[in-house]
Records
---
Amino acid sequence: MYLISSQEMLKKAQRECYAVPAFNIHNLETIQVVIDTAKQMQSPVILAATPATYSYAGIQYLISICKTAASIHHFPFALHLDHHENISDIQTKIEAGIRSIMIDASHHPFEENIDIVSKMVAFSHKYNASVEAELGRLGGQEDDLIVDHKDSAFTDPDAAKEYVERTRIDSLAVAIGSAHGLYKGEPKLDFDRLAKIRNKVDIPLVLHGASGIPEQMVKQSISLGICKVNVATELKIAFSDALKQDFKLHPDANDPRHYMQPAKAAMKKIVEDKIRICGSAGKL
Ligand code: 13P
């Protein structure tokens, strides 16, 4: 069984007005939780991993575990490169079998961003790998990627149209007020801006930083064209809080086959909830 690109699943989501959830994974246990739950709920799914995760777990380990999961479950899904910036690193991972990438050149000026992303698209499409890129800039922290609030920038709808036409990307990550990590207060999303971007751009749109965004806001984003919803922080918190709690209750615990169970169960609840909110259950 092979790992698929995100292209077809996002197009289907766009046609049928739901979103495919993209869950950040880190190891065997988190992959098992996402795949088992998505399969049970018959939801298409994207497993996302940042450069730091590939370094931690090993590219070949991650690819092999994911291919095995797809094969055991007869369930093709995408293993995705989340926020990758280094072109030769992305090329190596595509050559190793990954078919869904995000090239993040959002910190570069507009023309440079277009230049880098266009080159990546030309390379990736030869392998039928789908390409997501970001215009504007999300604030917050995603692993080693830290963007101060003052350096964040919203996506301009006219610039988005030109960006998509010139780069020929398959999906566009928009900056409309969401941020990576936890929010201090209630997040404020610029739905007018999202509607304007949707009017100008006809490829699937991606919402990053979905942890902590209230259900109604995520649903409204999906109704306005978001087809992929990225979740990382909420999963990490659920997993680690349950682990901490279990060690508190059982200070002598030392068997990962036991102490991992409550952590996996807590993470599973979040995955189930996000699939429900995305409206992707039953859409396989
Ligand atoms: P959160 O960690 O805020 O859920 O963001 C995830 C994300 O956007 C991954 O790219």
---
Amino acid sequence: MKSTQEQLKLKFQQALAEAFGTDYAEVDPILVSASNPKFGDYQANVSLSLTKQLKQQPRVIAQQIVDKLDVADICKPPEIAGPGFINLKLKTEYLEAQLSNIQTDPRLGVAPTKNPKRVIVDYPSPNIAKEMHVGHLRPAVIGDCLSRILEFVGHDVLRISHVGDWGTPFGMLIAFLEEAYPQALTTTENLDLGDLSSFYRQAKKRFDADEEFKKAAHQAVVNLQAGDEKTLLAWKIVCQLSSRAYEVIYQLMGISPNIIERGESFYNALLPEVLEELDKLGLLVENQGAQCVFLEGFTNREGEPLPLIVQKKDGGYNYATTDLAAIRYRVHVDKAQRVIYPVDAGQSNHFAQVFQVGKKAGWITDDVEFVHAPFGLVLGEDGQKLKTRSGEAVRLQDLLDGAIAHAQADLEARLKQEGREETPEFIHHVAQVIGISAIKYADLSQNRTSNYVFSYDKMLALKGNTAPYMLYAYVRTQGISREGKINFEQLGADAEILLREETELTLAKHLLQLDEVISEVEQDLLPNRLCEYLYQLSDKFNKFYENCPVLKSEEPVRTSRLVLCDLTARTLKLGLSLLGIRVLERM
Ligand code: ARG
């Protein structure tokens, strides 16, 4: 099924070609949803963009388009407004027919892309040997959501976690373990990641204070890079321990388990080739003993061009070199056509720099898109970066457990108030779904690029743009089917849809816009648009439900309204699943 916007676009392009010649057959009609429903449902702004080219007034252009525009089966007669906008109002019969079409479609009218690509999403990429902390919340939640959406659209998505598993920190850790806990390097049985994190902190202290220890740590890195068996085994143990701990968190969060762990170490053997290739291309410049690539658009305070160091004076490679190797590998071996990095905004320069070098080296061509999808910080209620009382980053596990505990307390209070009895299993399950959903939704519903304040009270509120509100809207739709003993699935493809009331029309139009929202998120990678869409959907559904009796109305209106309830429920369920949120039948 073609979306309304797509159908209208084709109609406009026909009209443009007829009015101004075939050169205009591909012009973008610049169709947008109308900002005010009073003026219509869509607005085409193309006349304003063509004034220079056609040397005519926009209203005159608009009139010529409208004269040729054949949209009678979709819209009421188009109207020209303001400086030359073309306003379109959808016909009720058209809306009814479109709803009937999506009623039998499990994808609810969202056609799979005609241009499927291989897409890599680089997330959540924590650093090994440290527990995941609040800083890993956003890449996990956003990366998972974007992957789900792109996969649903029909792309071939590879989730790759670029874990930090190489370099000085491991030398430090291994040297510390060799010295203090040699038994830890032979078996993981009595260790968990919590221990490892504490070893890591102790190792860091020693490293900063003790020259001898520093030397031992550097030696361990050298041994590791040289492939020394004992050191390699110790490193593997550390990696395994970390991966196992991450999996537990991913599972609790409901993050897709299909994440490929391909850490920095993976690229180690490829780094010399990267340098060689940069050298062959004449891009390498020696600067104070280090090998560098000079960048355009990055200057120091004196206005001189800044170099990107790709090999340090001591011969070692760095974070940037590894990312260059990853870029090259992702293009040449993975054959990726789009690579997305949901990584904190603090790394914007890093990505701009390695992408620039990737382009200079010819790895990133016009056929492949590399995008950094930056996100802001998670703040505490004091407006500062979220920290524990002792000033450390909050453990991700604690954050999640906290949300579940808060959700459970809220739920128990609500049950008491309503005089409801539920089993401990029910309470546990509902609290877990609400707690995790609330964290995810609070994160995704903000514009990704802004910072946001982490507040259990706000994210768990039953009213407002929150997960519980959305889950509750879904529960309400399921309540209707329970109360009327109606199996939504058996409503039948032939059920007639009748849109008589204003609130029905408003809901219907919104239901038909899911494809437009998803295609926006596919392009601009902003999940908050989907959240906003679902929030509006719940709101429009509530207004419809307040105004239009469903179970008590007469046929054929009753069935038609039941279909609206069913479509709302399915749209909520699908939309939330794309955010990584499960629905509840009761809560
Ligand atoms: N491990 C890095 C960190 O914790 C994030 C890696 C992001 N991905 C990448 N390809 N650089 O900051």
